[in-house]
Amino acid sequence: MALSNLEFKGKKVTVIGLARSGAGAANLLHSLGAEVTVTDLRGASELEQYTALLSGGIKKVLGSHPDELFLDADLVVFSPGVPMSAPPLVKAAKAGVPLMGEMELAFRVANSPFIAITGTNGKSTTTTLVGLMLKEAGMKVQVGGNLGNALTEKPEELMDKDYIVAEVSSFQLEGIATFRPKIAALLNITQDHLDRYPDMDSYAEAKALVFKNQTADDFFVVNADDLPSMHLRERARSRKVLFSRKQYIKDGVSIRDGYIISGLTPDVVQEVVPIDKIRIKGVHNLENALAAAAISLAAGAPTMAISKVLTEFPGLEHRLEHVREINGVEYINDSKGTNVGAVEKSVQSFERPVILIAGGLDKHSDFSPLAPLIKARVKKLILIGSAAKVMQKALGGETDTVLSGTLEDAVRMAKGAALPGDVVLLSPACASFDMFKDFEDRGRRFKDIVMGLT
């Protein structure tokens, strides 16, 4: 089906924030007949990889944000990396100019129902699993969002699908107005992004937007073991579907007698898969498997398709990824562990002694909740990056703790301290931007260093 949306034809639209989302949004708007200008505070030399993606006819204003781009526009579309508190957006809003996030734009153009998956941790793995399960069930599916490919990059893929399965961040949710997923999922809410939000309540409110526009005809999948998520669920008008790793949920998805079981069909209990047959390991991945099963069952997938994917899916790169074993020591890359809650789940996944490499760019996090776990399971803590001293102050008294100037030195320190049976775990609890391009760059560098050990 050809794209057609007269809502944007002939409109003067400014797109602020030129990364993949910004480029995708600009190209989509241009294809719909809008007069598009993209703007970014970074200069042309920093943005070459993204300006190269832009269609001809799109204007570029780089290195500054002139007021007229926002005050004279019919619409301002903003990328997830641009907070609504950014001065240009505040000025535009005060002038009555409509604001729209990139996710909202994708939703407005699509003619397919959405599955929106949000939460602090587990979004990427759960989104990937759901996409695979629905495809295994024979459905036409497009997977994207915060997963690495902006939905607006290939707008033709938003058309005539059974479902658009979207990983959705709190940043993306800030820009919605009419966005209404057929199935919304809230995996968990733990401390994160306090460099962008003034407090945890504000962060939780952004997550709650995922079900804001749902009705009784929609589904809201929520983690029964996560108190902040359960607190928010009372506000949802949609049908609640609970999943739990810790308790039996009669009419939800949970664990009984070693199986993931479903009670979503009235008066019928279905065994989905034995938990010891699930290929991805760790307590957080068991929660991801439960969430994906609940979402996929709500979407109409049979248990056979869900079971097949869970027994075969090997996991995503940088999420508790086995790198190598050397002299009985296992090296694990969990570079995606960028907040305290993620590191908690990662360390809990190992009964063996852990040598933990952590640190990076602090997001105004409180690291003290990690203290009991560090004391109980981490034999050595090696800290890197700009947050190292803050983390040392919060956690250094719980175990043998040292600072390292580089990731290379940290891995060498870990190797020197490790004994057969130990785990060397990179799980930073911090962002990567002080030392690396992104968490993927950090994880790949870790793997390169480990593969070079002798």
Concise summary:
The chain is α/β, with parallel strands linked by helices. It has three domains: 86 residues, Rossmann fold; 208 residues, Mur-like, catalytic domain (UDP-N-acetylmuramoyl-L-alanine:D-glutamate ligase, 3-Layer(aba) Sandwich), CATH 3.40.1190.10; 131 residues, Mur ligase, C-terminal domain (Protein-Tyrosine Phosphatase, Chain A).
Walk me through this protein's architecture.
There is one protein chain. This protein has helices spanning 20-31, 48-51, 67-71, 87-94, 102-109, 123-136, 170-173, 200-208, 227-233, 283-298, 303-312, 340-348, 371-377, 388-395, 407-417, 439-451, and strands at residues 12-16, 35-40, 59-62, 75-78, 99-101, 114-118, 141-145, 163-167, 183-186, 219-223, 239-243, 253-256, 259-262, 270-274, 321-326, 329-333, 354-359, 378-384, 400-403, 423-426. It has 454 residues and is of the alpha/beta class. The strands form 4 sheets. Strands 7-8-6-9-10-11 form a 6-stranded parallel β-sheet, sandwiched between helices. A 6-stranded mixed β-sheet has the order 15-16-20-17-18-19, sandwiched between helices. Strands 3-2-1-4-5 form a 5-stranded parallel β-sheet, with helices on both faces. α6 packs across α10. It starts with 11 loop residues before the first strand and ends with a helix.
Beta-strand content: 15-25%
Can you tell me the CATH superfamily of the largest domain?
Answer: Mur-like, catalytic domain
Distance between the first and last residues' Cα: 56 Å
Any idea of the CATH class of the largest domain? Answer: Alpha Beta
Residue stretches low in confidence (pLDDT < 50, at least 5 long) are none
What global shape is seen? Answer: globular
Largest sheet data: 6 strands, parallel
CATH topology of the largest domain: UDP-N-acetylmuramoyl-L-alanine:D-glutamate ligase
Provide the spatial order of strands within the biggest beta sheet. 7-8-6-9-10-11
Mean pLDDT across the residues is 93
Structural class: alpha/beta
Number of strands: 20
Report the radius of gyration as a whole number of Å: 23 Å
Q: Name the CATH architecture of the largest domain.
A: 3-Layer(aba) Sandwich
